[in-house]
Write a structure and sequence with these properties.
The complex is a heterodimer of chains A (489) and B (510). Chain A contains 16 helices and 19 strands. By secondary structure, chain A is of the alpha/beta class. The longest helix of chain A is centred in the C-terminal third of the chain and has 28 residues, at 359-386. Chain B is built from 16 helices and 21 strands. With 510 residues, chain B is of the alpha+beta class. Chain B has helices spanning 8-11, 22-35, 63-70, 75-81, 118-127, 139-145, 171-184, 231-236, 300-308, 354-367, 376-402, 410-417, 422-434, 447-456, 473-492, 497-504; strands at 15-19, 42-47, 85-87, 89-93, 101-105, 166-168, 188-191, 194-199, 206-211, 216-218, 221-224, 241-243, 252-258, 268-273, 276-282, 287-293, 320-323, 327-329, 333-334, 337-339, 345-346. In chain B, helix 2 packs parallel to helix 7, helix 2 (22-35) packs parallel to helix 10 (354-367) and helix 10 runs antiparallel to helix 11 (376-402). The chains are: A alpha/beta (489), B alpha+beta (510). Chains A and B meet through helix 11 and helix 13 of A and helix 11 and helix 13 of B.
Chain lengths: 489, 510
């Protein structure tokens, strides 16, 4: 990264000034977004953009789809990003060792399954399982209909098909790329859009219309809602692993004795991290545990950092807005911190305050929406923690933690009648919640009564044909590594 | 987390009893009869010819179409049988100031540009001197004003695809239509007046109802569609009522139909009067009229005269008086009784939500359809969902009253100065300051509806999304002129509403 320092805003200081404080992906993304959105009507500057943050970014890698605001801001196509950011495609996350050891489930958010007669497929399958008198059939039968999860499990990849008749039209892949390399892409794009790099210690913040803080501070703010106990970790050790490896189309999360291991494949190796509970596991033990999972691989860029899972209650106060790790941290599972950043940027750009107007109104709306986003995402990330059946004290204790009311209601309602409770501002569609709850072992006690009017022989025949089409399609798809080699060439 | 499955058959509901006919009763019977056809459930509806129905909910929201379609009902047949007209929105007259008029359409305004919602562009243009009203950029508004109608164009690029539609129909004919349909599909109708209700001594659930002739009808689940009196939900279970008169104080109405004198347009009208408002709902064969008022500000005689003096044609009968208290039951599902329709709550029909709330109650009940035992959790969930639905509609209705600038009558001054629900206060400030429109997933009124009422009642944003300033002013004006012209041309090439109705669904043709 070449350091370019203009040292000041452009001379015309009549325009409103937007100051971004921070480094890395979040800061450069916010700067690029504002510069693009406001064009020549405002000056955008960044303080500390090229400096090392006090604590490393929690976004060492990220999964982006083509429509993400971050993809759009980078000005690159997905293929360009994969080539320049050491990436590949991803179909989701493999929870390896969930809900209990020797089992694995996939979070693979594809397109919703086609619905027959207005009745979701899991109701029909549940009815069929009950007719056989054995609820144990339900989950395996349903898993056969999870096309994207099955592609991921098979290590297969192909782009989504436009033809709605093709099972591949159900795919919703994303790019899995290196966070540091992507930050460099964003930095270049921001500078090209006219973002100024400002020195520390100047008076740039004085009179700024809006100040955006992006980096977590060593001491969390007073209104930080501490959720470390809910997730069972408070520190993270991350490393990069060099060497040629198989490149599966998914990230992996595996429960260890004192926390969660994440492995994200990259073209030249992988990024691995172990989020652990420092009260029960010393850093040296954490490192030993992490290395034991990586075999004899060569590691580099070792980073050890506290991980303050949680969020501030009021990220926007006065004319200061906190985003990224300054506002909320959920850790590596499901790429949650990058998702939070995308959502914060999206909220911020839609609520930019106008000069001369009361900013408290936009701040209140931003804070309200961010609280909803955080609740939604943290509930989804918490789901496997709450539903784990892992026979290890650390995980047994996480099962016993109080479940937030919003998540508790979702689980109980689904377990009762197979319906997904809907809240305002849903991030995930009902299909995604359904897939994960079933995968984690929640079998509804009842099914949609309208399913009783269906001709079950016909319906099961139809679902059987769908499974057959899935089998054939998956068999014909190339391995992700093979596909990636083709598109990289 | 493998959960033990209950034996569905062992605890399944076998008998559903619907108490009360009318729109709520027969909509419930039709939907339950159709959706639960695969289960061995006996559905019985009890109604008495001696007990009249309110039946004033003649204007609907577009959601009713999905309700009917989901039961396989042909739209043309339904409209012909209920003497229906189309509805593109509601016209509000005299609500902001005397002489004001605006239409709340079932559709969008303008087109977004560069990721910006249209109202930000319109606000910027307005502040820069563009005097065109926002309604000029809405196809459904302009079509309604011009008395034109056609079905939406399936091509999403067409300006004629930017709207939804509902019906204005005779609610008693709708109930009659659904009654025959339900009975054809196996619902049992019992004529009789309920004189007694028997409760289970242990659970407190309703076990049976007894008719005047001594017949006892048992049920696992009871749907109370008995209207305001709440025969089961209140008289038997003493559920209690959350009174919202402090926000919506109108408590009485007179209703009377009148003859049609001129061709009618595809919209309902709500005209603000001295201490309330008057509805006008044009059907194919008559116009439904009513005057909703607050008895603290106007006498019954004055209210009645106001209605009769403001009819378009000769009255077709004597005005009928209605009494109500706005609000809802503390629980809309209590024990094994679900209150649907007026027995569950009442919100004045200013935005045609009465039938919608019935529909929502039925849909939610089907989504949560319980077993005969342990239905408390389903009831809790139902109450959460429906309470939010009621409250969000309430806030939207209150907006019409508080956002007035009328100084001609004490009622309107008091409404403006009353204590607002806190949730509405925040929405109001967000809109006036920066054009932020309430946007939620749960609730019937979407952002264009809020926009229509805010702007229609002269609540204009003083700010807008600053990204609009990056758009060249001349280019913006050209873009807006282009949309306005597209709307006008679209309306010009749309058929007359009366011609369309006469061809598509003439009364008595089915």
């Amino acid at each position: 990264v070449t350091k370019t320092e203009t040292g000041a805003f452009p001379a015309s200081n009549a325009k409103p000034r937007y100051v971004i404080k921070g480094s890395g992906l979040a800061a450069w993304s916010a700067a690029k977004m504002l510069a693009d959105a406001l064009g020549g009507s405002a000056d955008v500057g960044i303080i500390g953009g090229d400096e090392a943050p006090v604590l490393p970014s929690t976004i060492s890698h990220l999964a982006l789809d083509g429509e993400s605001i971050l993809t759009e801001l980078s000005g690159k196509t997905p293929l360009e990003l994969i080539r320049s950011c050491n990436g590949g495609f991803t179909l989701g996350t493999c929870l390896d060792g969930w809900p209990q050891s020797a089992q694995r489930v996939f979070h693979a958010p594809g397109e919703p399954l086609p619905i027959s007669s207005g009745i979701a497929a899991h109701n029909i399958i549940l009815k069929a399982a009950l007719a056989q008198g054995d609820s144990a059939h339900f989950q395996p039968l349903y898993e056969q209909l999870r096309f994207q999860a099955r592609c991921a499990a098979g290590g297969k990849f192909a782009p989504p098909a436009q033809d709605r008749q093709s099972p591949r039209s159900l795919l919703r892949p994303a790019m899995q790329i290196d966070g540091d390399l992507f930050a460099a892409v964003m930095r270049a794009a921001a500078l090209e859009s006219g973002v100024s790099i400002l020195p520390f210690g100047g008076e740039h913040e004085t009179g700024a219309h809006l100040i955006i803080e992006c980096d977590v501070s060593e001491i969390p703010p007073a209104d930080w809602q501490d959720m470390r106990a809910d997730f069972g970790y408070d520190h993270c050790l991350s490393v990069r692993v060099s060497g040629s490896h198989d490149h599966p189309p998914y990230a992996m999360a595996r429960p260890l004795d004192h926390g969660l291991l994440s492995i994200v494949p990259m073209q030249d190796g992988m990024i691995a991290s172990y989020c652990f509970d420092s009260a029960t596991c010393a850093p040296s033990a954490a490192k030993a545990a992490l290395l034991s999972q990586l075999g004899k691989a060569e590691i580099r860029d070792e980073q050890y950092q506290p991980l303050s899972i949680g969020a501030v209650s009021q990220p926007w106060r006065g004319n200061q807005v906190q985003i990224s790790s300054a506002a909320a941290i959920l850790g590596p599972l499901y790429n949650a911190d990058a998702m939070l950043l995308s959502m914060q940027l999206d909220r911020l750009i839609r609520l930019l305050p106008q000069g001369g107007h009361d900013m408290a109104v936009t701040a209140a709306e931003y804070n309200r929406l961010c609280a909803i986003d955080f609740q939604q995402l943290s509930d989804f990330v918490r789901l496997p923690f709450v539903c784990n059946q892992i026979a290890v004290p650390h995980w047994a204790a996480l099962r016993e933690m109080p479940t937030p009311e919003t998540l508790r209601r979702r689980i109980e309602r689904f377990a009762s009648n197979g319906r997904v409770v809907k809240y305002d501002g849903e991030i995930f569609d009902g299909q995604i919640w359904t897939d994960m709850m079933i995968a984690l072992g929640i079998t509804p006690r009842r099914y949609d009564p309208a399913a009783d009017a269906l001709d079950m022989q016909q319906m099961m025949g139809r679902l059987g044909k769908m499974v057959q089409a899935f089998d054939q399609t998956i068999a014909a798809m190339p391995a992700h590594t093979e596909y990636l080699d083709q598109v990289k060439a | 987390m493998e959960r033990k499955l209950n034996s569905t058959a062992a605890h399944a509901i076998k008998n559903i009893v619907i108490v009360g006919g009318g729109t709520a009763g027969w909509m419930t019977a039709a939907a339950l009869g159709f959706k639960l056809a695969g289960r061995s459930i006996d559905i019985t509806l009890i109604e008495s010819a001696e007990i009249g129905t309110v039946g004033v909910g003649e204007a609907t929201l577009p959601h009713i179409r999905f309700f009917n379609e989901s039961m396989g009902i042909s739209e043309r047949e339904l409209m012909a049988r209920t003497k229906a007209t189309f509805k593109l929105g509601i016209e509000f007259v005299n609500w902001g100031k005397l002489g004001d008029a605006y239409i709340h359409p079932f559709g969008d305004y303008g087109e977004p540009a560069d990721g910006l919602d249209f109202h930000h562009l319109w606000t910027k243009a307005r502040i820069a001197g563009n005097s065109a009203r926002i309604c000029n950029y809405s196809y459904p508004v302009m079509a309604a004003k011009a008395q034109r109608f056609q079905l939406p164009d399936p091509d999403p690029a067409s300006i004629k695809s930017t709207f939804g539609y509902a019906f204005q129909f005779d609610a008693s004919l709708y109930a009659k239509f659904l009654s025959s349909l339900s009975q054809e599909r196996g619902v049992r109708r019992v004529e009789g007046k309920i004189t007694d209700t028997s409760l289970d001594s242990e659970t407190g659930h309703v076990r049976s109802v007894t008719l005047e002739n001594g017949t006892q009808i048992e049920g696992d689940l009871f749907i109370d569609c008995s209207g305001f009196r709440g025969l089961l939900i209140e008289q038997a279970l003493a559920t209690g009522y959350d009174d919202w008169s402090q926000y919506l104080p109108c408590n009485r109405a007179f209703a009377v139909p009148c003859e049609i004198v001129d061709p009618v347009g595809p919209y309902t009208r709500a005209t603000a009067r001295q201490a309330g408002w008057q509805w006008r709902i044009p059907l194919q064969h008559r116009i439904g009229n009513g005057h909703v008022y607050c008895s603290s500000y106007i006498s019954d005689d004055e209210a009645r005269d106001t209605l009769l003096n403001n009819l378009e044609g000769p009255a077709l009968g004597e005005p009928r008086q209605l009494f109500f208290t706005t609000g809802r039951r503390n629980k809309l599902w209590n024990k094994n009784v679900v209150a649907i329709g007026l027995s569950g709550g009442f919100l004045e029909p200013l935005e045609s939500t009465s039938i919608h709330l019935i529909q929502q109650g039925i849909t939610t009940l089907l989504e949560l359809f319980p077993d005969a035992e342990n239905m408390a959790d389903d009831a809790d969930e139902y109450n959460k969902v429906m309470q939010l639905e009621f409250e969000r509609i309430r806030d939207f209705l209150v907006l019409h009253y508080v956002a007035n600038q009328r100084d001609d009558a004490p009622f309107w001054r008091d409404m403006r100065n009353m204590a607002w629900p806190a949730s509405l206060k925040e929405k109001f400030a967000a809109f006036t300051n920066r054009g932020i429109i309430p946007d939620y997933d749960i609730g019937v009124f979407l952002p264009p509806s809020w926009l229509a009422v805010f702007i229609g009642q002269n609540i204009l944003p003083t700010g807008y999304d600053p990204r609009a300033d990056t758009i060249d002013s001349a280019a913006l004006m050209a873009q807006m002129d282009m949309i306005k012209a597209k709307v006008a041309m679209g309306v010009d090439s749309t058929r007359w509403h009366s011609d369309f109705v006469a061809e598509y669904c003439p009364a008595g043709s089915q």
